[in-house]
Amino acid sequence: MNGIQQRLNSWQDGVSGTNCPIQPATNWTYNFSFKDQIGTFFYFPSINFLKAGGAFGPIRVNNRAVISVPFPKPEAELDLLIGD
């Protein structure tokens, strides 16, 4: 993921051999720890045929309710992705 500082979990960043492959017809849940990072980020594979198959998109990181931010809450948030 571009721009994400992975802490304590960079071993599962998707590099071949760092974790077991996800088998067909199964799921995998990634758990990430983000510290002091809020905003919209982008994920994409480094293998072009996966990217062509639609394996890319936004990841929105919101602040926790217990942590205030020094600006008003946005009226709305939209993610616009354009791919070729």
From TrEMBL:
InterPro entries: Cu-oxidase-like_N (IPR011707), Cu-oxidase_fam (IPR045087), Cupredoxin (IPR008972). One of its GO terms (molecular function) is copper ion binding. Belongs to the multicopper oxidase family. Residues 2-64 form the Plastocyanin-like domain. Pfam families: Cu-oxidase_3 (PF07732). One of its GO terms (cellular component) is plasma membrane. SUPFAM superfamilies: Cupredoxins (SSF49503). This is Plastocyanin-like domain-containing protein.
